[in-house]
Amino acid sequence: MNKELDKTVCTNVEWVGRAHCDRCHIRRLMFFSELPDSAFEHLLQPVDQFIHAAGSTIFEAGTRKKFIYSIRRGMVKLVHTAEDGTNRIVRLIGPGSAIGLELLDGADSYHHSAIAINQVDLCKIPVPTVEQLESEYPELYQHVVQQLQDQLDLADQWIVALGAGTAKQRVAQLLLVLDKFFAENNDEFILLSREDMAAMIGIAVETVSRMIAEFKRQKILYKTDNNLYTCNTAELLKIAQQD
Amino acid sequence: MNKELDKTVCTNVEWVGRAHCDRCHIRRLMFFSELPDSAFEHLLQPVDQFIHAAGSTIFEAGTRKKFIYSIRRGMVKLVHTAEDGTNRIVRLIGPGSAIGLELLDGADSYHHSAIAINQVDLCKIPVPTVEQLESEYPELYQHVVQQLQDQLDLADQWIVALGAGTAKQRVAQLLLVLDKFFAENNDEFILLSREDMAAMIGIAVETVSRMIAEFKRQKILYKTDNNLYTCNTAELLKIAQQD
DNA sequence: CGAGGGGTTGACGCCGATCAAAGCTGGTGG
DNA sequence: CCACCAGCTTTGATCGGCGTCAACCCCTCG
To answer: Structural domains in chain A?
Structure first.
């Protein structure tokens, strides 16, 4: 695979302000969805809101911080970097999901690196605050369980869909995943860099490029805007599953 | 991949008896490890213990049962079967781990099929019983979270180690995984069928066979007993990571 | 304007899928 | 007890897909 060492990593982060969960207008999507407003009156440590620029690192694998992050907007990749510098994207995380949950479970450092793909808007929640709220409101456990189960399903889907088949099938599957990922808003989705796509499905960058180019030529993949695309899902499904 | 339809599935199951969790001598390994003995006095529905023969199905994906299973002994494979009959092994589960946890989270059917690899000894726990105990003893949530997090880590490891690299590297990684899986007892481990190994790492059966044969010839993999093997982990690591 | 990064395309060689056939093993029944 | 068979494993031969190296294009930014 590709063995590029980290180029200068952009870590452009902007502090938006203290989060006021009791007044959050998307709270039902977020990590504290089940809690009553009163839960936030005496937090051990405050929750802060940040905006990360595209490409900036949210946290790095192995570092011993004590925060989990709930994604409000944008798309995050979880990356595993091997000793030899090879890195593999293990999961894509979007709005409403949380990352760094391994810290809630005795882990003393993050298991992956988390990097913003586009501009990401998130809440940074201290672990002690989560633990405090868990003890006061056991229903929060339900939410953690839900989050973990969802991510486990994602990981399994990753193994099944993106880890087998020919290069063309995998790219088709990947496009379907991206399409579904953005489905809430509209049919359009952001096409990732070829390098990211290659790191997701474990094939060479050039091969990804060839397949994408072929799909474009066959009008299975249309460009609608700058790097917004639409795809013919029926056709992609056929390709992904043939033989 | 291989598209064999289900041959006659062996479902040889033997009921061992009612489980008495309060007297279980391996309870600290099991699903109810944190609970006091008194917790089991008034269970909504009883916990039963079973022995599954090698190859027998514990549950099938999509079926609407209401039980989770805690593995006492043996090895279980979680299998995803695609529409075209292709099946892929998504995870290996061993003693102390639980399967079917998706039911605790609103899922109305199992996400995978679970099949015993060798003889498996397990406890069959009704979901209502778990929910009852969860409400009485919130610390049980911690254990569920732990289980899910462990399985998520396994899935990620699967993606990283078994989903990339050459066929030789993947087989080497797989042997290392098997070795670690059995590490508690001794160095020896059971070598799976070529078909299972192929379904884990997404390559052809014949290729797996070739690689295994090559490792045997190079004395990196020794047969010690019937189908018990030992491996030279240092050498395998070198192979798995080279370039 | 040049430099640099990402994307596309071409040429080539090797890895691994596929098809085919031949050991090997355990189980079954005569 | 042996013959036979079915299923698994091994090995060989062939061919296509894809990784690799390399050149070129396009766009952005200094």
So the answer is: 21-161 (2.60.120.10), 163-240 (1.10.10.10)
